[in-house]
């Protein structure tokens, strides 16, 4: 026993002193889901947190590492955690969406997520994946390149995570429960936050401001994460330009911009080159929502402060500069900006875009209505209806058990069907005058894919209840964004213009308001994979579906057996 301990200790010392000896290691984390009291905007709330931190702790790993996160539920809510963007090759049991790949971790229960990071480096994030618990349960995932690998851009002086979130003065669970009951839109958040802090434009918040101190003549890597629930965000820093170098843990061709736009579910790494002198002013870092849909939204302004500090000057006495941001509805900016993203796609980081397609899918995404239960009144968009949202007019109902468990144990009967429509059942002019009947269907239907099928998926926004940008997120995969446009997708005209050379590869893409986006991927990861709008209210209303990817023939192409501690329903 003592001997083993000494050997282990020596090993640890050696590995700490000579990390370059290590090829891949296992990283152990414990996430205690617990209550913590937090005050923002002069309101103190008992929030759900990981280890008492808000935002939650950083998860740091190197490409190739195994990560084990023991999640212990000390609260009364059911919980799951999703490792957003992590490919989870054959380890779908660790993906996290409740009732899709696992039953929730109940009070006093523990579940250890176990996954390997392969072929990814950059920034992702983790968040709760049940109801709206991700409002406060979220934090960064930082994936460093392998030891012997450097960044394909200038080595940054420092790396700074920047997480956007939304703060509610009331319990977000009460907000979504009320919305689902009445069928109306949810109450909006009271503030946006930058690293958990609203900033100087809110009441009671000047001390709750994220401040970033920089040195002149340096390059900083900002790891920007949009963990807000319901809003895409513009972000800009006064008098500084940003160079985008990575998106969703994939390197991009670098490009400069004064403003970025980032949807919930996306991550963007940017380089910030600081000035060559000590300016006698500070610089605001400001975000603003990008709004396309109808209804109310949080129109407040979160801000942080970037400053340079020479010895004793107090930054309080310095004037500040404010950046100019696009208009709140600037769809032209959104379209132009998303077109700037291209894969780095060089010899060191090649990409594998499906050139030939085995299966084509055409999915409409958008809002609609569902009937109001008898003898109740509802506050949906039309007389006595509820808001609903759908993919190919199906609102996805979550079953009371885990879909992937039902699949693995051959118990799908009564849980899900595999007849999700490949194209809309009733085609219409998707971006023209909406049909009179806005009612959606409601079912649990999956698409089944054979292992390694090359898939093309067109996501088409509808103008039912108003055209709106929808950030669609696919679990377990990155897809190539090969095309996008406004109006209805036209296979005869649009497919010829697809970029099959250096399309950006990501896990979340905005379907343009009143437009479409085309993505391609190889179905090389067996399991059940959720796909949904990352605007949480749209997911709650049913803008979600799931793919079932079958096992391949090789042993490393099969979904692993479920872990012994997989939660039960
Ligand atoms: C939060 O505040 C309430 C009211 O003051 C207190 O009863 C509770 O113990 C606090 N919870 C934590 C986790 O500190
Ligand atoms: C959880 O554990 C605590 C402490 O052991 C106990 O008081 C509580 O009743 C348990 N709750 C449930 C739902 O099991
Ligand atoms: C994690 O998963 C790997 C691959 O399936 C397995 O070999 C390993 O035993 C698991 N580790 C734990 C602690 O469950
Ligand atoms: C920054 O670099 C420039 C060019 O090398 C130099 O002239 C300048 O003094 C540097 N600024 C500071 C604050 O060190
Ligand atoms: C800041 O510096 C600029 C140029 O060096 C000068 O014009 C300006 O008056 C200074 N402002 C303050 C507040 O010192
Ligand atoms: C955006 O909003 C502005 C001001 O509210 C309005 O004048 C303009 O027409 C809107 N633009 C679009 C494209 O909707
Ligand atoms: C609905 O209301 C009517 C009239 O008040 C009543 O007869 C009926 O039982 C109610 N139905 C339900 C499902 O509550
Ligand atoms: C809306 O519903 C209410 C209650 O069911 C009904 O009295 C009213 O006539 C309806 N209005 C329209 C425009 O259909
Ligand atoms: C669809 O509706 C739009 C807007 O009204 C119109 O411009 C377009 O021509 C229509 N497309 C088709 C195929 O009818
Ligand atoms: C919708 O209803 C109106 C009025 O009832 C009718 O004139 C129109 O043709 C309908 N439109 C469609 C697409 O069915
Ligand atoms: C959808 O179907 C589920 C299961 O059948 C049911 O519980 C739920 O109430 C339905 N939702 C709507 C909006 O119709
Ligand atoms: C937690 O999940 C279990 C299993 O799905 C379910 O039976 C239970 O009602 C849930 N509890 C709460 C508080 O939502
Ligand atoms: Cu949406």
TrEMBL record:
<dbReference type="Pfam" id="PF07731">
    <property type="entry name" value="Cu-oxidase_2"/>
</dbReference>
<feature type="signal peptide">
    <location>
        <begin position="1"/>
        <end position="24"/>
    </location>
</feature>
<dbReference type="InterPro" id="IPR017761">
    <property type="entry name" value="Laccase"/>
</dbReference>
<dbReference type="InterPro" id="IPR034289">
    <property type="entry name" value="CuRO_3_LCC"/>
</dbReference>
<dbReference type="InterPro" id="IPR011706">
    <property type="entry name" value="Cu-oxidase_C"/>
</dbReference>
<dbReference type="GO" id="GO:0046274">
    <property type="term" value="P:lignin catabolic process"/>
</dbReference>
<feature type="domain" description="Plastocyanin-like">
    <location>
        <begin position="33"/>
        <end position="146"/>
    </location>
</feature>
<dbReference type="InterPro" id="IPR045087">
    <property type="entry name" value="Cu-oxidase_fam"/>
</dbReference>
<dbReference type="Pfam" id="PF00394">
    <property type="entry name" value="Cu-oxidase"/>
</dbReference>
<comment type="similarity">
    <text>Belongs to the multicopper oxidase family.</text>
</comment>
<dbReference type="InterPro" id="IPR001117">
    <property type="entry name" value="Cu-oxidase_2nd"/>
</dbReference>
<dbReference type="GO" id="GO:0005507">
    <property type="term" value="F:copper ion binding"/>
</dbReference>
<keyword id="KW-0964">Secreted</keyword>
<dbReference type="InterPro" id="IPR034288">
    <property type="entry name" value="CuRO_1_LCC"/>
</dbReference>
<keyword id="KW-0325">Glycoprotein</keyword>
<dbReference type="InterPro" id="IPR011707">
    <property type="entry name" value="Cu-oxidase-like_N"/>
</dbReference>
<dbReference type="InterPro" id="IPR033138">
    <property type="entry name" value="Cu_oxidase_CS"/>
</dbReference>
<dbReference type="GO" id="GO:0048046">
    <property type="term" value="C:apoplast"/>
</dbReference>
<dbReference type="InterPro" id="IPR008972">
    <property type="entry name" value="Cupredoxin"/>
</dbReference>
<dbReference type="InterPro" id="IPR002355">
    <property type="entry name" value="Cu_oxidase_Cu_BS"/>
</dbReference>
<keyword id="KW-0052">Apoplast</keyword>
<protein>
    <recommendedName>
        <fullName>Laccase</fullName>
        <ecNumber>1.10.3.2</ecNumber>
    </recommendedName>
</protein>
<dbReference type="Pfam" id="PF07732">
    <property type="entry name" value="Cu-oxidase_3"/>
</dbReference>
<keyword id="KW-0677">Repeat</keyword>
<keyword id="KW-0732">Signal</keyword>
<keyword id="KW-0560">Oxidoreductase</keyword>
<feature type="domain" description="Plastocyanin-like">
    <location>
        <begin position="426"/>
        <end position="551"/>
    </location>
</feature>
<dbReference type="InterPro" id="IPR034285">
    <property type="entry name" value="CuRO_2_LCC"/>
</dbReference>
<keyword id="KW-0479">Metal-binding</keyword>
<keyword id="KW-0439">Lignin degradation</keyword>
<keyword id="KW-0186">Copper</keyword>
<feature type="domain" description="Plastocyanin-like">
    <location>
        <begin position="159"/>
        <end position="310"/>
    </location>
</feature>
<comment type="function">
    <text>Lignin degradation and detoxification of lignin-derived products.</text>
</comment>
<dbReference type="GO" id="GO:0052716">
    <property type="term" value="F:hydroquinone:oxygen oxidoreductase activity"/>
</dbReference>
């Amino acid at each position: 026993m003592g001997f083993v301990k000494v050997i282990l200790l020596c090993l640890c010392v050696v590995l700490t002193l000579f990390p370059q000896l290590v090829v891949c290691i296992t990283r152990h984390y414990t996430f205690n889901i617990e209550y913590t009291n937090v005050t923002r905007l002069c309101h103190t709330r008992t929030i759900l947190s990981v280890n008492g931190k808000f935002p939650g702790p950083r998860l740091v790993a190197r490409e190739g590492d195994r990560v084990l996160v023991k999640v212990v539920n000390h609260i009364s809510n059911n919980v799951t955690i999703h490792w957003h963007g992590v490919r989870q090759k054959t380890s779908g049991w660790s993906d996290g969406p409740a009732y899709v790949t696992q039953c929730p971790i109940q009070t006093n229960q523990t579940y250890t997520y176990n996954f390997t990071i392969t072929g990814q480096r950059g920034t992702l994030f983790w968040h709760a994946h049940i109801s709206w618990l991700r409002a406060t349960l979220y934090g960064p995932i930082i994936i460093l390149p392998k030891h012997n690998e450097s960044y394909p851009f200038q080595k940054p002086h420092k790396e700074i995570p920047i997480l956007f979130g939304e703060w509610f003065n009331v319990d977000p669970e009460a907000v979504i429960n009320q919305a689902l009951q009445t069928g109306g839109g949810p109450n909006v958040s009271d503030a946006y936050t930058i690293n958990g802090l609203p900033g100087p434009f809110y009441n009671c918040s000047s001390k709750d401001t994220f401040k970033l101190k920089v040195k002149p003549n340096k390059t900083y890597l900002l790891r920007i994460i949009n963990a807000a629930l319901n809003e895409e965000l513009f972000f800009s820093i006064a008098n500084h330009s940003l160079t985008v170098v990575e998106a969703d843990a994939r390197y991009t061709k670098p490009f400069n911009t004064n403003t970025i736009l980032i949807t919930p579910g996306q991550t963007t790494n940017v380089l910030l080159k600081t000035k060559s002198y000590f300016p006698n002013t500070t610089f605001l870092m400001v975000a603003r929502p990008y709004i396309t849909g109808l209804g109310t939204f949080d129109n407040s302004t979160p801000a942080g402060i970037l400053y340079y500090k020479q010895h004793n000057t107090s930054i309080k006495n310095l004037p500040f500069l404010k950046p100019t941001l696009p208009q709140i509805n600037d769809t032209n900016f959104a379209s132009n900006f998303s077109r700037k993203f291209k894969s780095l796609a060089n010899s060191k980081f090649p990409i594998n875009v499906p050139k030939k397609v085995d299966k084509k899918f055409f999915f409409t995404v958008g809002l609609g209505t569902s009937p109001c239960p008898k003898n109740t009144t509802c506050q949906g968009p039309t007389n006595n209806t509820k808001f609903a949202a759908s993919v190919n007019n199906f609102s996805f109902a979550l079953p009371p058990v885990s879909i992937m468990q039902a699949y693995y144990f051959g118990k799908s009967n009564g849980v899900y069907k595999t007849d999700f429509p490949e194209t809309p059942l009733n085609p219409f002019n998707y971006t023209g005058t909406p049909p009179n009947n806005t009612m959606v269907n409601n079912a649990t239907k999956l698409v089944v894919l054979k292992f390694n099928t090359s898939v093309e998926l067109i996501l088409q926004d509808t103008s039912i209840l108003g055209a709106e940008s929808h950030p669609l997120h696919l679990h377990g995969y990155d897809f190539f964004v090969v095309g996008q446009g406004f109006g209805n997708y036209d296979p005869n005209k649009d497919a010829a213009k697809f970029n099959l050379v250096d399309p950006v590869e990501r896990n979340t893409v905005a379907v343009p308001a009143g437009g479409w986006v085309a993505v391609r991927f190889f179905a090389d990861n067996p399991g059940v994979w959720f796909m949904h709008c990352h605007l949480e209210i749209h997911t709650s209303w049913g803008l979600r579906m799931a793919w079932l990817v079958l096992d391949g023939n090789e042993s490393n192409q099969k979904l692993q057996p479920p872990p012994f501690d997989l939660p039960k329903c």
